[in-house]
Amino acid sequence: MFSADYTPFFESVLFEAFGKDVEVNKYQFLGGGCINNAVKLDTAMGKFFLKWNDSKQSEEMFEAEANGLSLLIDKQAITIPHVIKYGNNNGKAYLLLEFISSAYRQKNYWERLGGQLADLHRNTHSYFGLHFNNFIGALPQSNEYLPSWVDFFIEKRLKVQAGLAYYNGLVGKDLLKKMEKLYEKLPSMLPEEQPALLHGDLWSGNVMVDSQGLPCLIDPAVYYGNREIELAFTQLFGGFDDDFYYAYQASFPLLPEFDKRVEIYNLYPLLVHVNLFGTSYLSGVERVLKRYE
Ligand code: ADP
């Protein structure tokens, strides 16, 4: 198999970032990402993380990701890799970040993450949304401001993904009708809280261990939302230790009966998965909708 030498590309990106020649001594492709190419660069200036993509939309995606990371960094609640540079180098959109070297998890790793996420969520806003749009996976995510969480969740999250699934022939009109029925019930089911700054895509694959054995978050899809949707999503694919939930609750208790709302919030990531990865995720959506017919 022909394998390209990427070194000139990497060095050109590093030149763009630092304004001088930086030699790449070694590079290593990293797996785990769903969308982009990712490498660890070993250079004379230290290690860097670089991801890139040839697709047209990627430049916008990396810009939104960089802005999301920077926003989270500013709040100083959780460790986030520093953004060094993003842009387009010879038709390749890229994002260059601080490289996170992982150590063994410290004993209080999950407890720490719970407390830190609560700290992040204490950053509030008067509206739900954000001053820029971003992406959830490879799909556009609108963050147009709205004053009500229920309206935001329905209009900017559920309807967008359900509509896209219908448009792409992944679901039928019957599912849209069931969704409409659910929308009518949501105002009496979902509590309103002050909009909180969310990571926005918090599953275990986006939590890394840093060089001190403490948590570090990557790949955000930030916006101000109801923090319940963030905690709900951590439960969808699992991987978060009980200590995480205890520490979060101890620091910033959720409203009563949160557990009953978890599956409603997770309709959003499930519909996103239907659109990104196919109809195998549909049964999860249908199971929830059946309960609210
Ligand atoms: P994608 O945008 O394709 O989902 P990710 O951002 O998830 O890519 O990155 C792919 C993998 O690279 C992650 O699963 C993680 O293991 C690793 N990774 C991501 N960011 C960093 C970083 N700053 N330092 C070190 N490794 C990273």
UniProtKB/TrEMBL annotation:
Q: Which Gene3D superfamilies match?
A: 3.90.1200.10, Phosphorylase Kinase, domain 1
Asked whether the UniProt record includes Transferase among its keywords, one would answer: yes
A GO MF term: kinase activity
Q: Which InterPro entries does its entry note? A: Fructo-/Ketosamine-3-kinase, Kinase-like_dom_sf
Asked if the Swiss-Prot or TrEMBL record annotates the protein with the keyword GTP-binding, the reply is no
Domain of life according to the entry = Bacteria
For this UniProt record, the keywords arranged alphabetically read as follows: Kinase, Transferase
Pfam families per the UniProt record, alphabetical? Fructosamin_kin
Identify its protein family.
Belongs to the fructosamine kinase family.
- The protein's name in its UniProt record: Fructosamine-3-kinase
Q: Which organism is it from?
A: Thermoflexibacter ruber
